[in-house]
Design brief:
By secondary structure, the protein is an alpha/beta fold. The chain is built from ten helices and 16 strands. β12, α8 and β13 form a beta-alpha-beta unit.
């Protein structure tokens, strides 16, 4: 089969490789679509290799069951579904509490095994997956379903954790209206009464945000925090979701979140918010506000995301590419030219 593999730092190759063998608890999935996440760009740009042998990228995967492992109950060949990306242990305290995204078996700061970031991923014709990660999608198109596995899941989880703040009359700020952010705007619109303010560096992304339900769009510049304060009676936004994560956006979040508000870090840009212990009164962090570094989401968040998509409440803006054009798609994402999500079709 064909697989898009990372063969060294910055080196991406479409290679001919064997169709994976499956174990008794696995499924073989024929890939229908695989989304491209900004995290794939980070992996491609790493100065070292994640593992010594070539790694098939792709953690947003949807497809059809081609073969079922001998010990798997309740799944049949021909079923359509997507892949939950937290391949967690299933037995630790967090997993049994439904928090598989922070599986303790992964260690204190690592993430659970994720296809395309350790095990081979879905930018290929076939993928081996643990049967427990398969989530049915009904008749959703594969290109719509694949991005739900991360772009919707990680957005949904960040929003779910800030739900107490998202009361009627509240304001939610979404920084970065890319693959994740444009879905986040739709989840906020569909599941809360908050007014959404979108922030991006590109006017075209703010137009996308408006189509997704944002009340207003602001360019990210020096006056943006003040503009948010001006629109919230000086108190700030009850929730700020940062899908970029650079120093600039982290400090925009710090300067624009309300007292008791929620600042959720999702973007992995390595930025450091300036939050200090000290009395209030300065320009800094308001009393009672909370920060969460948000990874992926729970299986429950994923089922909720799929339900929203199946009922037409969220729709991913998709740009389709052939698997062989993966490099072009990644380059376009790097240049900020993708509206919504780029999806590879094998
Ligand atoms: P993307 O490239 O599709 O979107 C990024 C958006 O941010 C673009 O619209 C871009 O114009 C905008 N942007 C860039 N700099 C900006 C700035 N200074 N201010 C405002 N907007 C700015 O990326 P994506 O796939 O949506 O991923 C977003 C981030 O989330 C990445 O860092 C990715 O690695 C991370 N991510 C995290 C998780 C998680 O679980 N925490 C999951 C998936 C992705
Ligand atoms: Zn991702």
């Amino acid at each position: 089969m064909k697989a898009l593999q990372l063969t060294g730092p910055g080196a991406l190759e479409l290679r001919e490789v064997p169709v994976p063998e499956i174990g008794p608890a696995d499924l073989l999935l024929r890939v229908g679509a695989a989304g491209i996440c900004h995290s794939d760009l980070y992996v491609l740009q790493l100065p070292f290799q994640l593992r010594p042998d070539p790694l098939t990228l792709g953690h947003e995967i949807a497809g059809t069951i081609e073969a079922v492992g001998g010990a798997v109950d309740g799944r049949t060949v021909g079923e359509r579904g997507l892949v939950y990306l937290c391949w967690s242990c299933g037995t630790c305290r967090e997993c049994v509490s439904g928090n598989e995204n922070v599986c303790l078996a992964a260690g204190r700061v690592a993430m659970p095994p994720c296809p395309g970031l350790g095990p081979d991923g879905g930018m290929a014709e076939y993928i081996r997956i643990p049967a427990s990660s398969f989530v049915p999608i009904g008749d959703l198109e594969f290109a719509q379903a694949a991005p739900l596995a991360d772009a919707a899941l990680s957005s949904y989880h960040a929003i779910e954790g800030a739900r107490p703040q998202l009361q009627p009359g509240s304001t939610a700020v979404v920084i970065g209206v890319g693959g994740l952010g444009h879905v986040a705007v739709q989840i906020l619109t569909a599941t809360t009464a908050a007014r959404v303010i979108a922030v991006d560096i590109a006017a075209a992304k703010l137009e996308l945000a408006a189509r997704c339900g944002a009340a207003e769009g602001l360019l990210c510049e020096s006056g943006t925090a003040q503009a948010i304060l001006d629109r919230t009676g000086g108190r700030g936004a009850e929730a700020v979701f940062d899908f970029v994560g650079t120093d600039q956006t982290a400090n925009l979040a710090v300067a624009s979140v309300a007292p008791n508000g929620a600042y959720r870090m999702v973007g992995l840009g390595g930025g450091a918010p300036e939050i200090t212990a000290g009395p209030a009164g300065g320009p800094g962090w308001p009393w009672g506000a909370s920060v969460r570094k948000s990874y992926g989401g729970t299986k429950s968040d994923l089922l909720n995301s799929v339900a929203l998509a199946r009922s037409g409440r969220i729709r991913v803006e998709v740009e389709r590419f052939d698997l062989a054009d993966g490099r072009t798609a990644l380059d376009r994402l790097d240049q900020g030219l993708i509206q919504g999500r780029a999806v590879l079709i094998p």
